[in-house]
Amino acid sequence: MKPALCIVIPVLDEAATIVAALLSLQDLRRRGACVVVVDGGSADDTLALARPLADRVLTAPRGRASQMNAGAAACAAEALLFLHADTRLPDGADRLVLRALQGAQAWGRFDVRIDSPRPLLGVVATLMNARSRWTGVVTGDQALFVRTALFAQVGGFPDLPLMEDLAISRRLARHGRPACLRERVTTSARRWERHGVWRTIGLMWRLRAAYRLGADPRELAIRYGYRPR
Prior knowledge:
The protein has about 230 residues and is an alpha/beta fold. The chain has helices at about 20-25, 25-30, 45-50, 65-75, 95-100, 120-135, 150-155, 165-175, 190-195, 195-210, 215-225, and strands spanning about 5-10, 35-40, 55-60, 80, 85-90, 105-115, 145, 180-190. The chain has one domain (about 5-225): Spore Coat Polysaccharide Biosynthesis Protein SpsA, Chain A (Alpha-Beta Complex), CATH 3.90.550.10.
């Protein structure tokens, strides 16, 4: 029987986090959700650790867009949810997603909180949620979900090394505004802790502005610290 929901997780060298990430999804699997892990060429034990805890483990060319598109193509579910390996879903996320997609809205996301006691990161998360609700733009940290038919109709994620979340938000926005769920996913603070909160905030604003002005996403990915293929 076709699953109602497929959760796609793009990974790269996530041996330290993948077991906890997948263990948090086992209740959803027992309720019928399909979990697909897509590896972009890990040099650690990510693949071996993921296999016992996922329905499918695939490899694809490195890059979140490429990996998420491959995962979506491998699962014939009614709806798709794209989840970062360092982000945890709220309780009952499968039911929340499917209920949201029963109405007029065909895509959406969760509010986000950043797993840190720093008050500044609480403010960052609040502003991210408010900006998303106002603009209709969904970030990868917010666990974007979408009806599979609409995902296919818009051509999936543009094959970009960075800003694929902004790009697909633009595509999906032509078919209506997202469902903005108040329930929160919890995402790791590791990005902010590694580079500093203010430095990371400033970098993301500069990269987003440069992208909107037509900068090459590959160059932006290098500035962000990704390794484009």
